[in-house]
Amino acid sequence: MTTIEGLDVQKVRADFPILTRTVREGRPLVYLDSGATSQRPRQVLDAERAFLEQHNAAVHRGAHQLAEEATDAYESARARIAAFIGAGPGEVVFTKNATEGINLVAYAMSNSSIRTGLGPESERFALGPGDEIVITELEHHANLVPWQELCRRTGATLRWYSITDEGRVDLDSIELTERTKVVAFAHQSNVLGTILPVAELVRRARAVGALVLLDACQSVPHMPVDLGELDVDFAVFSGHKMLGPSGVGVLYGRAELLAAMPPFLTGGSMIELVRMEHTTYSAPPQRFEAGVPMTSQAVGLGAAVEYINDIGIDVIHAHEIALVRQAVDGLAAVPGVRIIGPQDLTDRGGAVAFVVDGVHAHDVGQVLDDRGVAVRVGHHCAWPLHRRFGVAATVRASFHVYNTPDEVAALVEGVQAAREFFGVVS
Amino acid sequence: MYQEIILDHYRTPHGAGLREPFDAESFQINPTCGDEITLRVKLDGDTVSDVSYETLGCSISQASASVLTDLVVGRSIEDSMRVLTAFQEMAQGRGQVEPDEDVLGDGVAFAGVARYPARVKCALLGWMAFKDAVVRTAQTQDAAQTQATRDPEEAQP
């Protein structure tokens, strides 16, 4: 079934109950939408259930036994996730999702920019008119809109690297300046599959003293990522794209930065000393986790990391790259199909977006859906990128460890069927 | 879902293209997929005398706009809104609403779309543009009337 040594895909599939169901009148499900959300193995579901049945309590409050056990489970999950990404436990903040992680940083910077009642340590996060935030044209809306909003609130200017026809970042399109305060970009495009040149972008950001935020939503679930080694300041990713639960994501921040950064959300749990007139805040990561956090979800994400570690993230990556190779080659061979993104697999990961001449992406998706093949259609929350390529919508296939070469073949056959159905076969 | 009638309208859309003159124009987008329609309405008294449009969208949204022109051009505004309501009820009916062919004509072909909630917006995009454009013509007329009634008063010292 697969050519990757050390991976038995059928055995893996047996861990994912949902993959055995049928859709649209008895068709076996071919799930090729893991870039939107991945499916969860029984081990993750069991971990959540076991936590809730045996240890559930509000974490970081109360001294009873359940509270201790719940806190221990929550913090153990944090430590396991931190180790997985090359971070210290104190550098991992649990958020609702990656979007909240980016907003947390943007609002902390916004709060710093108001400059009242904050210590001098927050000055490095302050922005004003003339300052710049730099992103790229391929960003997910989650790594675009929060920065637009931060610019609107502070008077800073948003600039971006443009994207080449091949789907790579055009590093010559803009120059960073001494006024560049933040450089934020995706590790891997959720549409094109392009892996961005992190080291070069970090080097350029460091040269002007800018902070770097990495959107790692499409990289951490699919390939080995060591955030310490990448030397980024912040990074975000979500649990539900890495075989874990929804409702939990991670903001990574370098310890020294989190220690200096003011909070975004305030309230219970994140305090040190509260008086009617004034409050001081706890050390990170608690400073950024106001209120009772998601708990069974964090435990589930810890279990997902354990599941991935048991298989090996490098094995998963090799498997997915083989599927991407098959998908890119198979689709490119279908007349009228144009792949949006690099066909060269150098610095490329597992999202394959394409258009079919004469058939709208929705219609391709519908024909695929009727055959049991679940893909994403539309702009995939990267509307400016689609505009850049002159298309309103694309079809996107994306993979995870449980996908098989047969499923990629079903995708390619389905695309051919869509062309036939809409009569664009010459 | 893809009835032959829908594919016919998709391949040979009726009334496509933007035409002058028109009384009001509406631009609608489907934010989930980025599909767009620009639709113009021309009225002759209370009658819809022309609907012209340009779409960037899937077969469902294009065919739906084509069917719309067949169903509303030549009708009174009141009648066309009745058709619109019937079409919308069918499309949003999750397959539970039995469409009336006497009212909806070729529009009944879209009954199958109701079973695909993600596509309902596609089928309704043109209709929402039509509704919006008709409302705009009324606003334009109201404004013109208000202007006409107000002007003489304002002209007084």
Automatic annotation (TrEMBL), chain A:
It holds the Pfam family Aminotran_5. The keyword Membrane does not apply. The keyword Cytoplasm does not apply. Belongs to the class-V pyridoxal-phosphate-dependent aminotransferase family. Csd subfamily. This is Cysteine desulfurase. It comes from Pseudonocardia xinjiangensis. PROSITE patterns: AA_TRANSFER_CLASS_5 (PS00595). Catalyzes the removal of elemental sulfur and selenium atoms from L-cysteine, L-cystine, L-selenocysteine, and L-selenocystine to produce L-alanine. It comes from the Bacteria. It catalyses: (sulfur carrier)-H + L-cysteine = (sulfur carrier)-SH + L-alanine. Its EC number is 2.8.1.7. Residues 30-411 form the Aminotransferase class V domain. Keywords: Pyridoxal phosphate, Transferase. InterPro entries: Aminotrans_V_dom (IPR000192), Aminotrans_V_PyrdxlP_BS (IPR020578), Cys_dSase_SufS (IPR010970), PyrdxlP-dep_Trfase (IPR015424), PyrdxlP-dep_Trfase_major (IPR015421), PyrdxlP-dep_Trfase_small (IPR015422). Its cofactor is pyridoxal 5'-phosphate. It is an enzyme of class 2 (transferase).
